[in-house]
Amino acid sequence: MNLVYRTTWILSRIILQGLFRNRYLNPERLPATGPVILAANHASYFDPPLIGSGLARPVNYLARDTLFKYPIFRGMLRELHCVPVDRDGAGAAGLKGIFDRLSGGGVILLFPEGTRTPDGSLRPARAGIGLTVIKSKAPVLPVRVFGTFDAYSRHARFPTLHPIAVKYGRPLYFEAERAEVAHAPKARVKEIYQEVANRLMAEIAALQPCEDVDQFPSAPR
Known about the structure:
Elements: H1 3-20, E1 23-25, E2 36-40, H2 47-53, E3 59-64, H3 71-79, E4 82-85, H4 92-103, E5 107-110, H5 127-136, E6 140-146, H6 148-152, E7 165-168, H7 175-181, H8 186-206
Parallel strand pairs: 1-7, 2-5, 2-6, 3-4, 3-5
Antiparallel strand pairs: 6-7
């Protein structure tokens, strides 16, 4: 971690713990080396710092490309390992940036739903995450955040001091799907991308908080 990233990582842990009593569940499941895609549900602006601050490895994040136009943000975003993407996150430049980070052995955080949930429930995954998974050949770690919608939803003007937690799943490899894509017709390839995306959301939904996290006795699917 560079100095800016390390400082931000430490401050995120202190602030999230002090204000929101955050919990990190099973962060040791992240592979110690090599490229990894973190696939998480998206409920709040708090999700990226919560997910990243629970891991010992630096995480690459997606950031709106328009933010890089401002010198005051550009340098900071680069130090925080941010990848510029367009509004939908599916442009050629954004995909190249994602694959470049993965080919360099990095960890990158992606949200299969594409945007923050409007009501706290899990949303269907977009096929684009399936394309990224198949073409990258990187393992995927499903991740689920809890409580961040209540702490700071997209409708809220100010945060609420609600407990939050993040749980990291076990790596998924999708080797059979990658092998099929190599010989499948175009129509089938699109189906596989969506099947991969759907499986990721199912794996995220299956992650439930541990018994000792009494603030989250159950989590909506």
